[in-house]
Amino acid sequence: MQESEEDLKDIRNSALCAVTVLILMLTFFLGPEPVLAERYYGEDGYGSEETGYDLTNHLREDCWEWDGSFISYQEEGFTSTVGVDVSKWNGEINWDSLREQGVEFAIIRVGFRGYETGDLVLDDRFYEYMDGASAAGLQVGVYFYSQAIDEEEAAEEARFVINNIAGYSVSLPVYFDTEEVRLGESRTDIMATANYTLNAEAFCRTIEDQGYRAGVYASNEWIRRNLELSRLMDYEIWYAQYNTTPGRDYGFDMWQYTAQGDLYGCDTWLDMNVRVERA
User: Fold this and answer.
1) How far, in Å, CA of 253 to CA of 240, rounded?
2) Which of 57, 22, 87, 99 lies closest to 246, judged by CA?
3) In this structure, is the dihedral angle defined by the CA atoms of residues 251, 257, 263 and 267, taken in order, positive or negative?
4) What is the pTM of this model?
5) Residue among 18, 108, 24, 12 nearest 68 (CA)
6) Helix (H, G, I), strand (E, B) or coil at 1
7) pLDDT tens figures, 195-251
8) What separation, in Å, do the N-terminal and C-terminal C-alpha atoms of the chain show?
């Protein structure tokens, strides 16, 4: 079976339960201590002294708000928007309904590389979702689930994406999705850790060479173990961590905070995201 990302999402969605919602409610009602979130690692590894970058984004933990439906970031000088990311496993979607409930953007999977065969595969609902989200007036970005084993394959994945998004208005970044395969052996199992960063760079460079914005998606733990974020500062960081507030290890541009978004217009759970930008 080559669709590893779908299997992982099925397992992840079934494993998450109402405890996530309970934790969200308790933490937001109790209120976390106001501190500054660090961007990238600082004391834990990827410090700014070696790279020369300012690695802090100064997002305050006490400015995250849960309104019963979505998480947002409320601080003067910043704007936040709410969105979903989807693949064919979300089935038929009523995009107008999502927009009416407050969804402002969609990140749509273009496709994936098989973790055994290495084949490039287009998501069965990619064009349907692109047409629907665009017609509903949502901002649109895309992602590709990578199983590249070297920079050449990563660039090939980027070209696959570019060919399929031609003709669409893609106002949000094109994301390189790098994840662990937990269901069996993967063609990337023998790959050196450093290659994950090299592959991300190759993908993002190829995307930006064609005039699109590029970004990298990964879970909190995957980032900590496998990506040298100080080399990815030129690209947007979209990270996944199912929690009441973001982790403090590093900064980000977009946060996937739950896989259990429950909205009218879609019969499955939805991955929910919040983007934060300076006003």
Assistant:
1) 11
2) 57
3) positive
4) 0.82
5) 24
6) coil
7) 999 999 999 999 999 999 999 999 988 998 999 988 998 999 999 999 888 876 677
8) 45
